[in-house]
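Tokens for SsrA-binding protein. Go.
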Amino acid sequence: MTQKPVASSRIADNKKAAYNYFFEEKYEAGMVLQGWEVKALREGKVQLTDGYVVIKNGEMFIIGCQINPLRTASTHVNPDAVRTRKLLLHKEQIKRLIGKVEQKGYTLVPLNLHWKGGRVKCEIALAKGKAEHDKRHTIRDREGKREVERVMKQRQR
């Protein structure tokens, strides 16, 4: 009996989030998905870059997360790639986040989607926006690390 290769647990990352925000706290939330969306996630047809999280009536929703349907999607299903999807978190955590988000400058940002125990989880972060000079500092640090790695690689040869 042959085993299936283990798929990477990461589905998608929001790389832009680390550039635009400082992360205060991170949470892992479940996602309410339709069947065609799960199949599309297995194929990696998702984009988190424009996504953000809102809290309405004590419930959390992710908006702007784009899951593109597969070409083989069923004809009796009307797939909506950018529909609002519900996130599942404990009530105490949601109440805590409501208090934090109401403070000036805080927002909720999706960081990544991943598999955990056969279910799709969304890692979200309580984040504060970066100023322009902070973004320049991030770029400078990243380029410095690249230069160090390049020099170390040349010295190993």
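The first strand starts at residue 10 and ends at 13.
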